[in-house]
# Entry
Amino acid sequence: MIAIRQLGIQKIYFSPIPTGHGYTKCEHGTFPVPAPATAELLKTQLLKSVDIEKELTTPTGAAIITTLGEGLRTTPEMRILQIGYGAGSNDNPTVPNLLRILIGEVTPNIASDEMWIVETNIDNMSGEVLGYVMEKLFEAGAVDAYFTPIQMKKGRPGIIISAMASESRLPAVELVLFNQTTTFGIRKYKVIRTILTREFKEVDSRFGKIKVKIGRYNGDIKSFSPEYEDCKRIAEERGIPLKQVYSIISKELENIMNI
# Structure
């Protein structure tokens, strides 16, 4: 953690995790690899099949990487600045016992990523339950979730439940749909998002300091939004309608950012 802070690391990604195979001795006996604690920690993560009869990922290692980072199948788009290696003492004739770390910066102009859309059609669930399903989808790691009204067979009104998630969170999102809805199946497909690069700043306004989310495209500001919680606090403290707070702050931000 000290190194992460000193290096100014803001986001950590890791490749699919090799666990090895065979058996390992634990305090409570001999268990198959990965050990029970490791397997529990690696739920929903991408694993890599490696033909090495040895425990390659320990519970401690699994806890650290899954707590601090996000799993990806490929290296994220970035400009590499530094490369570091760590070597272990246990040599293997087929695979180098090395940990490689790449430190880089995200391309500042345009951000894009590959996501999955998972969908299912439902015509026999109440609105209360559907609202609960949406909460669970976000808890499972969906970056977006929404309902679309449709007309299904026999003229019955129905709902498409759609969720967007990264590949590492896809199994957890699918499990929510199977556990929490009446569906007998889902469909999924990949999409490419092009998103504004985002930054958060604290700016001065007539109401005091507020946090603002700023979106840029090719370096130019294309969108900005004052944080809801700050606007809500101001509205409640001063007895002003929330929409009026948004309007006043938005006009001030236009002048500050020269939009």
Summary: The chain has a mean pLDDT of 89. The chain has seven helices and 14 strands.
